Amino acid sequence: MASNNQAAAVYATLKEEAEQNRGKLFEKPLILIGAATCGRAAGALKLVEEINNELSRLQLEANVVEVGCMGHCYAEPIMVIYNEGFPPIAYGNVNEGVGARIVRDYLTDGDPGYEFALVALEPNDFFPTYSDFPRGIHENKIVLDQCGFIDPQNIEHYIATGGYSALVKVLEADPGEIIKTVKASGLRGRGGAGFPTGLKWETCSNAGGTPKYLICNADEGDPGAFMDRTILESTPHSLLEGMIIAGRAVGSEKGYIYIRAEYPLAVERVNQAVQQAHEKGLLGENILGTGFSFNIEIFQGSGAFVCGEETALIASMEGRAGIPTHKPPFPADAGLWGKPTVINNVKSFSYVPHIINNGADWFKSIGTEKNPGTAIFALAGKIENTGLVEVPMSTTLNELIFEVGSGIAGGKQFKAVQIGGPSGGCLPESALETPIDFDSLTEAGAMMGSGGMVVLDEDDCMVEIARYFLDFTQKESCGKCTFCRLGTKHMLDILERITKGHGKPEDIELLMEMAARVKEGSLCNLGKTAPNPVLSTIKHFRDEYEAHINEGRCPSLMCKDLIAYYILPDKCERSCDACLGSCPVEAIFSNEDRIKVIDQEKCVKCDSCKVACPPQYEAIVKLSPPSEVAAREQGEGVK
Amino acid sequence: MGNQITFTVDGKIINAAEGEMLLWTALDNDIYIPHLCGERNEKERPASCRLCFVEVDGRPAPMPACTLPVSEGLVVKTRSERVDALVAAGFELLMSNHRLDCKNCPANGNCELQRIAKARKLRLKPKNLPVLDKGLPVDDSAPGILYDPNKCVLCGRCIRACRHSGNGVLGFTRRGFERIVATFGDLPLGDSGCQGCGDCAEACPIGALAKKA
Ligand SMILES: Cc1cc2nc3c(=O)[nH]c(=O)nc-3n(C[C@H](O)[C@H](O)[C@H](O)COP(=O)(O)O)c2cc1C
Ligand code: SF4
Ligand code: SF4
C-alpha cells in the first residue's frame, strides 16, 4: 500500500532524528534521576537541583535528565550515571550530599563511588549487574522495561528506542489481523478480572453502533497500588501507542484516559505526551498520512474507589453518579453514551505494542498457557525490598517474596501475604508455592486484582487485617445494593466486636454465612469480592479468631483492647527512668524496689514506654489477654 | 421486542415476547417473585434490592429476574435451596435496617415487605442480625406527606415517580450504609419545592413515604 510505505518513510525520518537527538545526550556524562511521584516523595527534585548546582560550581559539563521510576522504591532517590569508559551505574538512597559527592568524585577524579552503587546496568568487570541478583534473575520487564531510563517528557526518547514502530506496522494491517494477533497472544486484562483482551476487542468491533469509543482505566483506587501511576509517569507513550493500535483494531477514533485527580503528575505527563504525539503526526487526524484518525482526551476522575468499576466509571464520565449498573449490557456492546466501548487497564494497553512488535508466540512463551506474559506487582508491607516488580506469570509467591523482595524485613517471621488489594485474600505459608496467575490465585482464595501485595509478619493479627480491609471496602461501597450496603456493614461490626474481645462463639459461622451471601448476592465486583479477606483469614487462621473469641487473647499482640503492657521486674534496670518520662499519662511509677510498674488503669497502650526502654534491657513486653498482667505480677512478686 | 417464545418457570409453560424481563412474565402468569426496586415500565433497571433471584438451567449461580431477558427454551426455577437462602439473607439484611412498627404504620396490610415475608415464610424481625436503626428524624414538613427514612429500603420508586409527575425533588444521596433518599440539599420536603402531589407515597411499596392520615 502506497500510504503505508509513506507512513514507514515518515516514521524512519522521525526515528533517525530522535536517535540523533537522544544520542547527543551521551556525548557528555549523562545523569538520570528518578523523579516520578515516588522519587519526588523521597526528595528527587532537591537532588536534581543540588546536582545542577554542583555541576555549575565545578564547571563540569553533564546532562541531567529527570526520568520515571525504576521500581526500586526502597532505594529512592535513585540516580544513574552514564560516563564514558565505565558501565552505566545506578545509585540508591542518594540524598543531596551523597549525590553531589558522587558527581564530584566521579566526574573530576574518575571514582565511580561503588560504595553508593546499587547495580551496574551493563555487564562489566567491576560491579554486579541485575542478573547477578535473584531479583534480576526472576524479573522480566516488558511494560516496565523503559521506566526510569527514558525521559517521559520527551517523545524522542520513546521513538529512539523503537517506540511507535508497532503502530506503523498495524497502520498497513487489516484491523481484523490486529485483533487476531492480540487474541492469539492470550493477553488477559490487567485491571483485575483477567478478561481476554482480544475477545473484548472483537466483541466491540462486531457490535453495531457508531461511533465506538476506547477508555483507558487509570483510576487505580486500591490503597497502596501505584503500578499504573508509574507507567503513566514513566512511559506514557507506551499507553498512547497501545490505545491508538486498539482504536485502529476496533474501528474507533476516540479514546479517553480516565485518570484519578489525585495523580496530578501523571495527568501532566500524559497531557504532554498527547501533545507531542500530535506534533509528530502520530496522533490526531490522518496519522502519518494514512487516513486513519484517532484522538485521545484525558478525563479526570474525582474519586471513589468504586468509580474504577467499568459501568460506574462510564456513568461518571457521562455526568451521572459513579454507581455500578447491571451487566449485561457490557460496555463492549453498549458503553459510553450507549455506544460500543472497549475499556482496558493501563497495563493491558501497554502490552499491546510489544505484542505487535514481537508477535503472539513471543508473548505466549512467557508465563503459562492460560496466563501468558508478566505480572506487575507493587510489593509492600513487611518486605525488605518494597517496590514495583515485573515477573513472568507462574513465578511463585515464594520466589516473589523471598528472592525478588529479599524476604521479610527485620528478621521477623513470615505469616501471610495479602494479595489482590482490599478484595483479595490472605494466603499463609503453606500456599507459598502457589504460582502467580489469575486462575491459581483465585483458586487459592485470593486474586490477582490489580497487583497489590502486602506482606504480613508475626506481629500482624489476621482478624485485625481482615477488619482493616473490610473497613476499606465497606466505606467504599456505593450503597446501591442490599448485600453490599448492609452485609459488609454487619460483617464489619462483627469483626470489630471480635477485635475488641466481645466476639461470640457463633460469630465465625455467621461471618462465613454472610460472606457467602454477600459474594453471591451483590451487584458488582466490589461487593462480590469484599468478603475475600474475611473468608481467607478464617480459612487459614481460624485459631486466631478462636483465641480472640474464646480467650480474649490476640496471639499477635496487635489488638489494643486485648493486650496490656508489662515491665519484667528482673529485666528492669531500676536506675533508668526512660519509660517513666515517655509515658504521656504518667501511668508508670517506681515501686519500693525501684522497679518500674505500670498502673493498668491509667495506661492508654500508646507503646511509648516499650519504644523508650533501651534495647540493652528490653524490659517491657505486651501480654494478652490483659489479665495475664495480674497473674505475672503475683508470680513474680511485683508490688 | 419481538417474537413470541416459549419457556418454563417452575414447570409451567409460558408464552411471552422474546426479550421481556423474566420478572414481569412470571408475575403475568401468577408466579410471584419477591421484588422491590424493579418497575415494569421504567427504562432504568436498578437491580439493587437483590430479592428477585431465580435459578436458571445452565447458569452457575442464581440471577436476578428483573434483568433477565426471556428466550426460547429457558428453564427457570423460582425456588431452590440456594435461591431461598439468598433471598432470605437479603430480606433479613433489609429488615435489619428497617424500623419495624407495623401496628402504627400507614402501610400495614398493604406492604410489600409483609407480602414477601408471607410468600416466602420469612420473619419480619431479623433472627441473626442486630437492627441498625438509621436514627434519622421523621420528616412531616410537607403538606399531606410523611417521610420516615428509617423505614426506607432504597428501592428508588419514589424518586422515579417524583421525576415523572412531581418536581423531581427527590434523589439518592450519600454512599454506602449512609445512602438515603433525600431532597436536593437535604432540605425538609416542605421546603424542597415538593408540590404535594403524593405520587411518591403512592409509589412507595412500604410505609416509608405515606400520605398523612
Ligand atoms: C470496585 C472496582 C474497582 C475497580 N477499579 C479498577 C481500577 O482502578 N483500574 C482498572 O483498570 N480496573 C478496575 N476495575 C476493573 C474494571 O471494572 C474493568 O474490569 C477493567 O478496567 C477492564 O480492563 P482490563 O480488561 O484491561 O482488565 C475495578 C473493578 C471494581 C469492581
Ligand atoms: S456491590 Fe456494593 S459497590 Fe457494587 S453496586 Fe452493590 S452496593 Fe454498590
Ligand atoms: S421511600 Fe419508599 S419508594 Fe422511596 S426509596 Fe424508600 S422504600 Fe422506595
Question: How would you describe what is shown here?
Answer:
The complex is a heterodimer of chains A (639) and B (213). The model of chain A has no long low-confidence stretch (mean pLDDT 95). In chain A, helix 7 runs parallel beside helix 11, helix 8 runs antiparallel to helix 9 (197-206) and helix 11 (236-250) packs across helix 14 (346-358). Chain A is globular. Helices cover 42% and strands 14% of the residues of chain A. Chain A is an alpha/beta fold and 639 residues long. Chain A has 5 domains: 22-130, Glutaredoxin; 163-363, NADH-ubiquinone oxidoreductase 51kDa subunit (Rossmann fold), CATH 3.40.50; 374-457, Ubiquitin-like (UB roll) (Roll), CATH 3.10.20; 462-551, Up-down Bundle (de novo design (two linked rop proteins)); 563-635, Alpha-Beta Plaits, CATH 3.30.70.20. With 213 residues, chain B is an alpha+beta fold. Chain B folds into 2 domains: 4-93, Ubiquitin-like (UB roll) (Roll), CATH 3.10.20.740; 96-211, 2-Layer Sandwich (Alpha-Beta Plaits). Chain B contains 5 helices and 9 strands, in the order E-E-H-E-E-E-H-H-E-H-E-E-H-E. In chain B, strands 2-1-5-3-4 form a 5-stranded mixed beta sheet, with helices on both faces. In chain B, a hairpin with a 6-residue loop joins strand 3 and strand 4. The radius of gyration of chain B is 18 Å and the shape is globular. Chain A binds chain B through residues 304, 321, 325-326, 474-483, 485-487, 489-490, 493, 510, 513-514, 517, 520-523, and chain B through 45-51, 53, 61-62, 64, 67, 82, 85-86, 89-90, 93-94, 96-97, 128-130, 132, 154, 172, 174-179. The complex binds flavin mononucleotide (FMN) and iron/sulfur cluster (2 copies). One iron/sulfur cluster (SF4) binds at residues 152-158, 181, 203-204, 206, 208-209 of chain B.
